[in-house]
Amino acid sequence: MTTRVALVGGTGKLGGIIRDVIDRSDGFEVTAVLTSRSGLDELDGADLVVDASTPAVSVDVVRAAIERGINVLVGTSGWSEERIAQVRPLVDATGTGVVFIPNFSLGSVVGSAIAAASASFFPSIEIIEAHRDTKVDSPSGTAVRTAELIAAARADVGPVESPHADQRARGQKVASVPIHSLRRPGVIARQETILSGPGESLSIVHDTIEPARAYEPGIRIALDAAREAHGIVVGLDSFIDIGISRTVPVAEIGGTDENDVTGQVARVTGA
After folding, report:
1. So which residues are the catalytic ones?
2. Number of neighbouring beta carbons within 10 Å of residue 78
3. Bridge partners, residue 158, by sequence
4. SS3 assignment for the chain
5. In total, how many domains does the chain have?
6. 141: domain range?
7. Which residues touch 260 (CB under 8 Å, ≥6 apart)?
8. Is residue 117 domain-shared with residue 185, that is, in the same domain?
9. Is the residue at 247 inside a domain?
10. pLDDT by residue, tens only, the chain of 271 residues
11. How close are the terminal C-alpha atoms of the chain, in Å?
12. 124 and 70 belong to one structural domain
């Protein structure tokens, strides 16, 4: 049975990558592509809505899909825990499934998991993320997700130390973690999580080099998961076994062969 997909933001950078993946995937067919000029009634008839729009539009798209009883895969940035909580009652009432993916890159997900696994050992943790100057939101959804995972992992030891956090130059605090956002030409996506303790530091860095190649395995995993999802699920790490002990539950689904991390670079360094 073919899953009919309504793709919102299909003419954008991420939307174009997602559409290409869908077109080459068995069992999925893009039946509607929504742009800024489209009405949300164009979602009608879809089996799955994939949202690759903008943070300002995304909440309306998600609500419209849920109200129609259609599952949603959300690749749009800006969905923090607080924002997700706003749509949770509607999801519970309709029995639909909404999958939020802050980053489709497997390397990015692994980097965030390593940061969370290390978080309880270091009192000071900060995140520096960089994206191209056309990215309209900050901090990035990936940085927000990483900070939330760090906070969950530190539930027993408390928030991170962030002196002088009242000063604007110290970044925006998310779940007690300062995040510093760079928006500049010449970069695609880069995140560094710096964990510091007495006499040492640990840096976890992920660079996206070729988005189309880096995101494809994660998009395939997310598409398969989203059409069968129930309730709210956050993060690609919910569908893959990274092999790192975490405090965040992992959903168990069928395996995948799409474990290629071509197009991205991740590294961990200590000093």
Report:
1. 131, 135
2. 19
3. none
4. CCEEEEEECCCCHHHHHHHHHHHCCCCEEEEEEECCCCCHHHHCCCCEEEECCCHHHHHHHHHHHHHCCCEEEECCCCCCHHHHHHHHHHHHHHCCEEEECCCCCHHHHHHHHHHHHHHHHCCEEEEEEEECCCCCCCCCHHHHHHHHHHHHHCCCCCCCCCCCCCCHHHCEEECCEEEEEEECCCCCEEEEEEEEECCEEEEEEEEECCHHHHHHHHHHHHHHHHCCCCEEEECHHHCCCCCCCCCCCCCCCCCCCCCCCCCEEEEEEEC
5. 2
6. 106-208
7. 106, 217
8. yes
9. no
10. 899 999 999 999 999 999 999 999 999 999 999 998 999 999 999 999 999 999 999 999 999 999 999 999 999 998 999 999 999 999 999 999 999 999 999 999 999 999 999 999 999 999 999 999 999 899 999 999 999 999 999 999 999 999 999 999 999 999 999 999 999 999 999 999 999 999 999 999 999 999 999 999 999 999 999 999 999 999 999 999 887 754 443 333 333 333 344 455 555 555 5
11. 53
12. no
Structure tokens at 255: 């395996």
Global pTM? 0.85
Amino acid at 111: G
The Cα-based distances of 20 to 34, 53, 229 in angstroms read 15, 16, 22
Q: What is the CATH number of the domain that holds 58?
A: 3.40.50.720
Whether residue 139 is preceded by a cis peptide bond, meaning omega within 30 degrees of 0, is yes
Token pair in block for residue 254: 């069928």
In the chain, the amino acid numbered 101 is I
- Cβ atoms within 10 A of the Cβ of 75, count? 27
The enclosing domain of 153 has a CATH number of 3.30.360.10
User: Residue 20 corresponds to which amino acid?
Assistant: D
For 168, the token pair is 């604007």
